[in-house]
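seq:
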Amino acid sequence: MKVPLLDLTAQYQSIKHDVFPVIHSICESQQFILGPHVETLESRLADYCQSPHTVGVSSGTDALIIAMMAAGIDQGDKVITSPYTFFASAGSIARLGATPVFADIDPETFNLSPDRIQDVIAGMNPSERFRTKAIMPVHLYGQCADMDAITNIAMSYGLMVIEDAAQAIGAEYQGRRAGSMGDYGCFSFFPSKNLGAFGDGGLVTVRKFDNFETLVKLRVHGSSPKYFHSLIGGNFRLDALQAAVVTIKLNYLDDWTCRRQENAGLYRILFEQAGLIPRITLPVEKSGRHVYNQYIIRVPEHRDALQAFLKQKNVGCEIYYPVPLHQQACFRYLGYQAGDFPESEKAARETLALPVYPELSIEQITYVVDVINQFFREHTS
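struct:
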């Protein structure tokens, strides 16, 4: 049996009857940049994300960059974030000339730990604290970070909160949606996301109307009206084709999320029945609605060998992320050392992503568990 890590072809077959007419109408109109399709998506996602304002942008990475530009993050400023996440979280900070300041993660959720944030701030000298402007929690794998604790810390020190919600569309913390709890929320529509486009795309949610107006200007080179530039922005526009595709997929998103959650529940039942715990550790649902952008297990022993065995048996799997950001070559200038963030480093050694996409069958999930069970029988006999 073959079980891919993600099967976007299966998803496409279920929605193509909706997609074709809309793409055809956009091609006929020849209106590809911004316009009514982007406005419709922004309006619907404002409701979905429980945010007063949204701005469609060109990618999830650009969402982070434009949000920090609107927040005034600049050369020499500092932003606290996680070392265990996709590169764009810290990379976007560095691209603005600011400095990523890492704090370790909660070992259960893999999200930024409020206690470690507090430790980092406590260890700063007055000058470093003055230059620290924001906290960027990452809602990793589809589960929100501990936002009450993080926003309380931010308020105590006068910091902004920029949520990296690229993997967490529709995730909830205490009944509040990802992207609605900070000053800004940043989303990605990369095709592999729960709500993916047919290319790149992203979105920024924002609380205050003044900040929304700034984002709208920054998206088009800082101009308003056209050719009159009060700010230096960039080309961060979302195109109409991507917006239309994402709008269509939004109609299906909650059903797809339910399927992901059901698949995660079935994994738990089958892993427990197979007696595979504690050889593996399953995801912990800690903060509310987990949308399972990825299904991540911990494998304390033989992780790499298990990955190779799964691939040999035609089961898609992936390591997110094998090298924490503080150990990446491009961030050596920050001066961090191995051992500085032990939970992030341990997660990089132990975690493995298994297929969880909505179209998975019971038979496929059962096969994945059977293959893992076979691996451990052979490695412990």
